[in-house]
Every structure is written in C-alpha cells, then in structure tokens.
Amino acid sequence: MFPKLFRPTISFLVAFNNHRPISFQTTAVKVKNGSSIRNGTGSFFDAHVFPGGYLDPSDTSVKWEMIYGLQDKNQESNSLEGQKLHSLAHKICAIRETFEESGLLISKPIPTWSEEESKFWREKIHSNVQNFFLMCKNYDTNPAVHDLYFFSNWVTPVTEKKRYDTIFYLTALPDVIHETKNDESALERIVHNHIGVDTKETIQLDWFTPGEAIEAYQKDQIHLFPPQWYILNELTSYKKLQDLLLSTCTNSRKVIPMIPEFVRDKETNKLFGALPGDMEHSTTTSEDKATKPNLRHRFYFELEKKKIKNISLEKKL
C-alpha cells in the first residue's frame, strides 16, 4: 500500500548522442495538454516535462515478475515513501508511459510494425494500461528494464495539497548515425518507431540538448517546473554522453530525495526554494549550520500568474 501523503510517479529522461561538435546528447521533453488529468485543472498546465506518469497496479503484476524474476525488485535504497528505487514496477511504468505518450518504445527486441499498429496499441494502452503487457506478448518483446538507471528523486513540498514522490530514470538510445541532418528521422529509423504526440496528454514533443532547453526557458519559449529545470541544468555539466552514463551507472552521483522548502529571504523578503544541504533546509544539522554558515543549495524564482518563472540556482556545498 502507498502512503496517502504521497502518490508515486515516474519520469523518464531519454538521451542519445547527436554527434554535434559541442553538445553530446538530446533529451526528450513534451508538453502536457490542458485536457490531461495532470494539466489544466491538474498539475501541468502546458509545461515541458519528461515523459512519465502515475504508477499503476498493473505495473506490479506478477506476470512481469515471472518474466524478469525478482532481481530488480530488491535493488538499491528506498525512496521517501518506502518503495524500492530500482523496482521492476517503476521501470515498467516509465517505459509504458513513454510509449503511450510519445510512441517511443524502449524494449528488446524492438518490434517492427506499421504506423497504424503503433497508433492502435498506444490508444489501447491509453484506455486500459493492462494492454501494455498484452502488446509486449503479441510482439514477443520485453521492456528493456536493465537499460534504465535511477537518476533523481523529487518530492512535492509539504505546502502543496497534492504531494508526489517522483523517481526520474535515465536511458540512452542506440548511437544515431550522423550522416543524416535530421536527428529525429535517424532516431526513428534506429528504434523502428513512429514517434509523435498522442494529442490526448501530449501536444508537442521536442528533442533538446540540455543547454538548448535551458536557453529556451530563459527566452520564455517553454515553461519548466523546478525539478525539470534543475535536472536539465545539471545535465549541462556533462560534456559527453558516456560521462553521464558512467556517472549514473556506477552510482558515483549521490542521489538523495529533493524536497524543496520555501523560505523567505530576510533581506529581500522574496521566497526561495531551499534544497537539502542548504543552511535553511530542515535536514541540515545544527553542527553544519554553526560551522558552515554559508552553505547554499537553493533556487530563486518569480511567480507570475501562478507559474514559477526565471529560475536560477545558487549552490555552494
């Protein structure tokens, strides 16, 4: 049973090598439609987010356990609500939601099918998520759960009425042949998929380098929430895709739940989001506050029509 305080959700970062001289990868983000249960009157009013969604009971089906065994269900540490970060159900959810929303199926072997077949199954899964298992069985393919790596964990602030414990996974697609100038076509050719929006939850699908996404946000061309902004900003520090994968796969990155706590600056009277490690965050010990008074791990922002805008990060740990 999931605690009532949190609703477990999964988000999926998809990267591939674009062979550009400066940047090493692109990351898939999308726009949530106002008709989506997570938008409009929900959570995501026309924002660019990573593919993902709510964990469904079908993701925990014993049918998946019989295919993979229990090795993935007993890995790594727990997230805040007590669920295993690397559980099989979380990875199934990430792959299922990404296929449903974008048409991109991370599976092995990748099925060769027509555009009509892909669209047919996306609609069937949208109406009943249990059809995801049926689709995989029909095409003799399995979600590539071993290609997903835990990347980040964000928890909704305590001030919000609806709280979510969101786990972010990362995967890298096969290398894109750089002879073509059309990255999306090359990607589609490699994964044998018909990638595009579903018009139900997604109304736009873009491939950005992390730097391009941050720049588009700064120019007010796209809207990002703090978790997505923070993750994309973090990705800009990796110059090569293999460096990112090595860091993620070997767990050299320390991942802790990111629970923002909103604090009002005593000098400017403006709100900022304190993150773990900041001297104003509740998890910072009294000893650290006394000996390291300049600890900073916070994001500044402005509120405009209920949207968080102009995010910037101060990090001195």
Tell me what you see in this structure.
By secondary structure, the protein is an alpha+beta fold. The chain contains 9 helices and 13 strands. The strands form 3 sheets. Strands 1, 2, 3, 4, 7, 8 and 9 form a 7-stranded mixed beta sheet that branches. It has a 4-stranded antiparallel beta sheet with strand order 10-11-12-13, with helices on one face. A two-stranded antiparallel ribbon has the order 5-6. It is globular, with a radius of gyration of 20 Å. The two termini are 36 Å apart. The model is unreliable at 33-44, 72-86 and 177-181 (pLDDT under 50).
Which range best describes the helical content: under 10%, 10-25%, 25-40%, 40-55%, 55-70% or over 70%?
A: 25-40%
The main sheet comes to: 7 strands, mixed
Radius of gyration: 20 Å
Q: How many beta-strand runs?
A: 13
Strand content: 15-25%
Number of helices: 9
Which stretches are low in confidence, meaning pLDDT under 50 for 5 or more residues running?
Answer: 33-44, 72-86, 177-181
Helix/sheet category: alpha+beta
Order of helices and strands: EEEEHHEHHEEEHEHHHEEHEE
Q: Give the overall silhouette.
A: globular
* End-to-end distance: 36 Å
- Mean pLDDT figure: 81
